[in-house]
Design brief:
- The chain contains 2 helices and 4 strands; from the N terminus they run E-H-E-E-E-H.
- With 115 residues, the protein is of the alpha+beta class.
- Helix 1 (38-51) links the parallel strand 1 and strand 2.
- Helix 1 (38-51) crosses helix 2.
- It is globular, with a radius of gyration of 14 Å.
- The protein starts with 14 loop residues before the first strand and ends in a 15-residue tail after the last helix.
Length: 115
């Protein structure tokens, strides 16, 4: 599963960024990304990516990504790299370091296994 083949059409976007905006009831033991401000952060990320000219990057809303305790969560494909973005500064770091420059924001990476 998942590997690109030589006869696949060209990729339309270089990256898809999925920002969890799942909302659980207040007091839920797992928490939720929306309670951590993910909707506002997603809106900022979309606007800032456009300002930066990242035209081949798509910022998408996502339902539950099942990493609630670590949120607000973002996953970037095709790499499959997960970040916790809790502030505007975190979003800027991911946009600049990962999406513009091709690096990784080590301090924001989610651990491979969280449970």
């Amino acid at each position: 599963m998942g590997e690109r083949r030589a006869d696949d059409p060209p990729m339309y976007y270089q990256a898809h960024v999925f920002v969890c905006s799942n909302r659980r009831p207040d007091g839920h033991p797992r928490g939720c990304c929306a309670a951590g401000g993910s909707e506002k952060l997603r809106d900022y990320m979309k606007a800032r990516a456009k300002e930066m000219g990242l035209t081949k990057v798509r910022i998408n809303n996502a339902g539950c990504l099942d990493r609630c305790e670590d949120g607000p969560c973002v996953v970037i494909y095709p790499e499959g790299v997960w970040y916790r973005v809790g502030s505007i500064a975190d979003v800027d770091a991911v946009l600049e370091t990962h999406l513009r420059d091709g690096g990784r924001v080590e301090a924001l990476l989610l651990p491979r296994e969280t449970r």
